C-alpha cells in the first residue's frame, strides 16, 4: 500500500526548487506546469494514493459482529430486574452500550442498523433519555424497520414526545396510531397517551402564548463594548485594544466558529462540537469515523459531510493535519469568496481580485467570518521551501480528492475546471498557511478513556452520577481545531491578558487579569511563561509564527524565574538546589527514555528511588497498608521536590485519582485516609492554580476530586471554596456543565445545607 510520505517524497523530487515565494496561486501552478513526463507521473501518484486508501470492509462480517452485539444486548435487556432498581439500571446501561456497539459495527447494513437503533431506543427510553430514544426510533424507521412492526416505534416516539412536552409531535404520532389495527395492550397505551395529550394541551392553553419565531442562526460574534480593533501598517499590524478598564473575569467577546474539525472524531459531534455523551449517531457510510449527538445535527451538517464522507472512509484527513481544517474553511466560505472569483476573466485576474479584497481594511466587528478569514495573516512567504512544498502537495491532494471523489465542482456550478482546480488548491493552501499561525484548539473535560459513558457504576439517572463517581471526569483533552478569525486579531504575549473557554463551536474570551483602558489585549500562542522556558517559546514562535517575542517575560533579566520555580530539586547527595539543564529533562517522567538528571553542583546523577516507591504503591491503593505507605512517600517528597514542583503535582494527582478509584471499587477508607487525601488535595489545587490558573480546564478537572471528597462529607469546604467551585463549573461547556451542576446540587449543596442547619441549631 502506498503511504503519504512515500508519494509526497517521490512527488517532491519531480517538483523544481521554489527559490522565491510569490503567492499561493503561483506555488500551486508549479505543480501543474511540470514537463509532460513528470506531470503525468505526478498526477498518477496522486490518483494512486487516493485509490490505495480505499478501506473496504467485509459487510457480511460487519453484520455478524453487529448481530452478535445486539443479541447480547437483547439477552441483558430481557433479564433485567423488575424489582431491584439498581440491578435494572445496570442492565439497561449495559444493554445500551451493547446496542451502540451493534450500531457502530453494522456499517451500512440497513437490516442490522434499523434493529440496533430500535433496540437502543427501547433501552434509552426506559432509562429516561427521551430525546435520544426518539431520535433512535426515527433512525430505525429511516433504515427500513419492518413495516408490520412500525407501530411499536411510533408508540415509543409518542411516549417520548409526551415526556418531552412536545404537543405537536405527540398529536402527530397519536393520529397515525389511531389509523392502525392495534392489539388490546397498544390500545390501552394509546388511550393513556391521548389523556396525556389533553393535559398538555390544557396546560399550554392556560399559559401565555408566545409568538412562534423562525429558527434563528446564532450570531457568530457577540462583542462587549470594552475593546476595539486598531489597524497599524507597521510590524504590529491589526490588534485589539481595551477602550475602558476591564475587570478580571469580564467577557470581552464571544466568537462562534463556522468551521472546525474534531480532534477526537468518535467523541465529538461533527456539527455542534459537543461531547457525544450517551447515544452517538454515526454516519453509516464512512466506517463510523463521524458521529453526531442528534439527528438534527446530522441534518445540519449534511452538505459539508457530503464532500468529506469519502475522505473519512479513506481515513485521508488524519494524514493531513491542519490541511483538513483548511479544506473545511474552503467548503464553508467558498460561496462567499466566489462572488469575487467569478468576476475575473483569467485565473490570475480572479486571484488578484480576491487578494485585493483581502488587503483592504474593514469594520472588523461587523465583517462576516468568511471575510475575516480571507484577511487573516499567513507566513508562507517566510516558510522553508520543503515546508511550502509539503503544504502545496496537501492542497493539491485535497483538490484532486474533491474532483475525483465528490460532486463539489457540480455543486459549485463553474466552468473552466482547470482554472478552478488551481483556484481551489490555492485557496486550500492559503487557508493552511493562515491556520498555521492563526488556528486554535479547543479543550474540554472528558470521561477517562478507561471508562465508557454507559458504564453502570456511573449513572443513577440521566446526567446524574452516583456518589463518588465525579473523579472519573478528570481528563482534559484537546477536542477541536477551530478557525476563529476575530480572536486571531489578538497579538501574542507570553503572559496573556485573556482566558478562553470553549462551549462546542463557541469560544468565550474573558479577561485573565485587570486590563486598563488603551492597553493592548494579548493572547498566548504557545505554553505561557509559567509552563515553558523562554528558549522553548522562542523556538516555537520562530518555527511556527516566524517572529521573536519581545514581551517583558522574554526580555526581563530573569525570564525563566517563574517557570523554574516549578522545577527545583534538592540534590540527593550534596543538598544543593538545582534545576535541570536540558529542555527534555523538565518533564522526564512523561518520557519512556531513562534520562540522567544531574546536580549542577556536584554532577551526581539523581537516583529518584522515592519516585519508584510512590509509583509502585499506586497500583495497590485498594489496600490500606499500601495507601499509608503512599501517603508517607508523598510527604517525604518535600525533601527532594521544592514548593509546587511539577512532578509533585503530577504525583499528587495520580495518588488522589488512584485512591478515589479504589474507593469507588469498594475499598474501605477511614478518617486517616480522608485527612491525608484532603492535605494532598489542598497542595494539588494550590499548585495547579499557581501554574495554570484557577479558571483553567486543568484546575477544574482536579476539582472533581474535591467534589467527591466534599460529597462524602470528608472535605471541609468554606463558603468561599464552594463559591469558587460554582464559578469554575460555569466555565464548562453546556453538555458537561449539566453533569457537574447536578452532582453539586445532589450531594454537595444538600450536605452543605444540612451542615448549615446543624450549625445553626448548635448555635441556638
UniProtKB/TrEMBL annotation:
Residues 237-525 form the SET domain. GO terms for cellular component: cytoplasm; nucleus. The lineage of its organism: Eukaryota, Metazoa, Ecdysozoa, Arthropoda, Hexapoda. This is SET domain-containing protein. Keywords: Coiled coil, Methyltransferase, S-adenosyl-L-methionine, Transferase. GO terms for biological process: methylation. Residues 183-210 form a coiled coil. GO terms for molecular function: histone deacetylase binding; N-methyltransferase activity; protein methyltransferase activity; S-adenosylmethionine-dependent methyltransferase activity. The keyword Methyltransferase applies. It comes from the Eukaryota. InterPro entries: SET-MYND_domain_protein (IPR052097), SET_dom (IPR001214), SET_dom_sf (IPR046341), TPR-like_helical_dom_sf (IPR011990).
Amino acid at each position: 500500500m502506498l503511504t503519504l510520505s512515500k508519494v509526497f517524497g517521490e512527488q517532491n523530487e519531480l517538483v523544481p526548487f521554489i527559490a522565491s515565494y510569490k503567492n499561493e496561486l503561483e506555488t500551486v501552478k508549479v505543480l501543474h506546469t511540470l514537463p509532460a513526463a513528470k506531470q503525468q507521473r505526478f498526477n498518477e501518484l496522486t490518483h494512486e494514493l487516493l485509490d490505495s486508501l480505499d478501506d473496504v470492509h467485509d459487510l457480511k462480517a460487519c453484520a455478524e459482529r453487529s448481530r452478535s452485539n445486539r443479541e447480547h444486548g437483547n439477552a441483558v435487556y430481557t433479564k433485567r430486574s423488575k424489582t431491584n432498581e439498581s440491578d435494572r439500571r445496570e442492565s439497561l446501561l449495559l444493554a445500551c452500550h451493547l446496542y451502540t456497539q451493534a450500531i457502530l459495527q453494522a456499517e451500512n447494513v440497513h437490516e442490522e442498523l434499523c434493529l440496533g437503533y430500535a433496540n437502543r431506543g427501547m433501552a434509552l427510553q426506559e432509562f429516561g433519555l427521551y430525546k435520544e430514544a426518539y431520535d433512535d426510533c426515527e433512525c430505525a424507521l429511516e433504515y427500513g424497520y419492518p413495516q408490520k412492526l412500525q407501530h411499536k416505534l411510533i408508540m415509543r416516539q409518542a411516549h417520548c414526545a409526551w415526556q418531552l412536552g412536545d404537543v405537536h409531535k405527540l398529536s402527530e404520532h397519536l393520529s397515525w396510531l389511531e389509523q392502525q389495527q392495534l392489539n388490546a395492550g397498544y390500545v390501552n397505551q394509546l388511550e393513556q397517551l391521548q389523556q396525556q395529550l389533553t393535559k398538555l394541551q390544557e396546560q399550554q392553553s392556560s399559559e401565555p402564548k408566545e409568538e412562534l419565531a423562525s429558527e434563528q442562526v446564532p450570531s457568530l460574534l457577540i462583542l462587549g463594548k470594552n475593546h476595539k480593533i486598531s489597524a497599524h501598517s507597521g510590524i504590529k499590524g491589526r490588534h485589539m485594544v481595551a477602550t475602558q478598564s476591564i475587570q478580571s473575569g469580564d467577557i470581552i467577546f464571544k466568537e462562534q466558529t463556522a468551521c472546525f474539525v474534531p480532534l477526537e472524531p468518535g467523541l465529538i459531534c461533527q456539527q455542534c462540537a459537543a461531547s457525544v455523551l450517551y447515544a452517538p449517531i454515526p454516519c453509516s457510510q464512512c466506517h463510523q469515523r463521524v458521529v453526531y449527538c442528534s439527528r438534527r445535527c446530522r441534518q445540519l451538517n449534511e452538505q459539508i459531510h457530503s464532500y468529506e464522507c469519502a475522505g473519512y472512509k479513506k481515513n485521508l484527513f488524519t494524514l493531513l493535519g491542519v490541511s483538513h481544517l483548511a479544506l473545511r474553511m474552503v467548503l464553508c466560505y467558498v460561496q462567499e469568496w466566489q462572488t469575487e472569483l467569478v468576476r475575473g476573466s483569467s485565473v490570475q485576474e480572479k486571484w488578484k481580485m480576491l487578494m485585493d479584497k483581502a488587503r483592504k481594511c474593514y469594520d472588523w466587528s461587523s465583517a462576516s467570518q468568511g471575510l475575516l478569514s480571507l484577511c487573516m495573516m499567513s507566513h508562507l512567504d517566510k516558510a522553508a521551501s520543503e515546508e511550502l512544498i509539503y503544504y502545496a502537495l496537501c492542497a493539491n491532494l485535497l483538490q484532486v480528492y474533491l474532483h475525483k471523489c465528490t460532486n463539489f465542482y457540480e455543486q459549485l456550478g463553474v466552468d473552466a475546471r482547470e482554472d478552478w482546480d488551481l483556484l481551489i488548491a490555492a485557496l486550500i493552501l492559503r487557508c493552511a498557511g493562515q491556520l498555521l499561525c492563526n488556528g486554535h484548539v479547543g479543550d474540554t473535560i472528558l470521561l477517562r478513556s478507561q471508562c465508557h459513558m454507559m458504564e453502570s457504576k456511573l449513572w443513577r439517572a440521566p446526567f446524574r452520577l452516583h456518589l463518588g463517581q465525579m473523579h472519573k471526569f478528570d481528563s482534559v483533552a484537546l477536542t477541536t481545531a477551530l478557525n476563529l478569525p476575530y480572536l486571531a486579531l489578538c497579538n501574542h504575549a507570553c503572559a496573556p491578558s485573556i482566558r478562553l473557554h470553549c462551549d462546542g463551536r463557541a469560544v468565550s474570551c474573558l479577561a485573565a487579569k485587570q486590563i486598563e483602558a488603551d492597553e493592548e489585549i494579548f493572547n498566548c500562542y504557545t505554553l505561557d511563561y509559567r509552563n515553558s522556558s523562554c528558549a522553548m517559546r522562542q523556538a516555537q514562535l520562530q518555527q511556527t509564527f516566524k517572529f521573536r517575542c519581545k514581551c517583558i517575560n522574554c526580555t526581563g533579566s530573569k525570564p525563566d524565574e517563574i517557570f523554574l520555580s516549578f522545577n527545583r530539586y534538592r540534590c540527593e547527595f550534596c543538598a544543593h538546589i538545582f534545576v535541570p539543564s536540558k529542555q527534555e529533562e523538565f518533564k522526564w517522567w512523561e518520557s519512556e527514555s531513562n534520562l540522567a538528571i544531574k546536580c549542577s553542583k556536584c554532577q551526581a546523577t539523581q537516583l529518584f528511588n522515592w519516585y519508584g516507591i510512590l509509583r509502585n504503591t499506586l497500583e495497590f491503593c485498594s489496600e490500606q497498608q499500601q495507601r499509608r505507605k503512599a501517603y508517607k512517600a508523598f510527604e517525604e517528597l518535600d525533601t527532594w521536590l521544592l514548593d509546587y514542583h511539577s512532578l509533585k503535582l503530577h504525583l499528587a494527582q495520580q495518588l488522589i485519582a488512584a485512591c478515589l478509584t479504589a474507593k469507588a471499587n469498594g475499598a474501605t477508607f477511614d478518617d486517616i485516609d480522608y485527612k491525608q487525601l484532603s492535605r494532598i488535595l489542598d497542595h494539588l489545587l494550590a499548585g495547579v492554580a499557581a501554574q495554570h490558573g484557577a479558571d483553567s480546564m486543568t484546575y477544574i478537572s482536579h476539582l472533581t476530586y474535591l467534589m467527591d471528597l466534599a460529597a462524602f462529607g470528608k472535605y471541609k469546604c468554606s463558603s468561599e471554596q464552594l463559591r469558587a467551585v460554582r464559578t469554575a463549573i460555569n466555565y464548562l461547556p453546556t453538555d458537561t456543565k449539566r453533569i457537574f451542576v447536578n452532582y453539586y446540587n445532589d450531594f454537595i449543596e444538600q450536605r452543605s445545607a444540612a451542615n448549615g442547619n446543624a450549625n445553626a441549631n448548635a448555635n441556638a
